[in-house]
Amino acid sequence: LVVGSRALFLQEHISVAGAEGGALPSGRKNVYVALDGRLQGTVVLDAAPRVVAAVAMQRLQSRHVEPVLLSYESREVAESVASAVGIEHVRPCTSEEEALREVDALVEVGRIVSVVGMPERDEALFERAHVGLAMRACGQPFRAWSVATMSSDPRTITAAFEELCGYETHIVAL
């Protein structure tokens, strides 16, 4: 059984042809379901961000932090989420390697990069960033992140980031 995004299905060499029936309303995304390597159907999920995420992004931007959304979702979903929370820079990535190249490019031009992500998914990104902020990671064995939070509430992430990094200019890859 495989359940996940279009990018995951492409990585697993499972065709999603015929399952995409046109553009979805803003803030929605397809989750594909396959059994024995064959697409069985799709589920449409509401991917709208929480209201507090926009407030958290405004708070970071007021501190001269430039958020960049790295997303494994489609460009349309990533841009919808970014627009809803006030993030100007969006980088849809189809693979971990592409996300790593994006982080590396920011580091190479001299930006201080913090990656906010999930420990089970974003370990390699944490290793490449100056600061790794792992959501819902408390109680897990320490790995490459600098900070672990108990929740994924954007207010908690913002407060932890501010406490750790002060008020210098940073790039946050979410």
Structure overview:
With 174 residues, the protein is of the alpha/beta class. It is 37% helix and 26% strand. It is globular and about 45 Å long. Helix 2 (51-62) runs parallel beside helix 6. It starts with a strand and ends with a strand. The protein is built from 6 helices and 9 strands; from the N terminus they run βαββαβαβαβαββαβ. The strands form 2 sheets. A 6-stranded parallel beta sheet has the order 5-4-9-6-7-8, with helices on both faces.
In short:
The protein has helices at 6-11, 51-62, 75-85, 96-108, 119-128, 154-165, and strands at 2-4, 28-35, 38-46, 65-71, 89-92, 113-117, 131-134, 147-148, 170-173. With 174 residues, the chain is α/β, with parallel strands linked by helices. Helix 2 runs parallel beside helix 6 and helix 4 packs parallel to helix 5 (119-128).
Report Rg. 17 Å
Number of continuous helical runs: 6
What portion of residues is helical? 25-40%
End-to-end separation: 28 Å
Give the strand line-up of the largest sheet: 5-4-9-6-7-8
Bin the strand percentage. Answer: 25-35%
Q: What would the principal axes of the Cα set say about the shape?
A: globular
Helix-strand pattern, N to C?
EHEEHEHEHEHEEHE
Structure classification: alpha/beta
User: What's the total count of β strands?
Assistant: 9
Largest sheet: 6 strands, parallel
Mean pLDDT: 76
Residue runs with pLDDT of under 50 for 5 or more positions? none
Strand and helix map with partners:
Elements: E1 2-4, H1 6-11, E2 28-35, E3 38-46, H2 51-62, E4 65-71, H3 75-85, E5 89-92, H4 96-108, E6 113-117, H5 119-128, E7 131-134, E8 147-148, H6 154-165, E9 170-173
Parallel strand pairs: 4-5, 4-9, 6-7, 6-9, 7-8
Antiparallel strand pairs: 1-2, 2-3
Helix pairs in contact: 2-6, 4-5
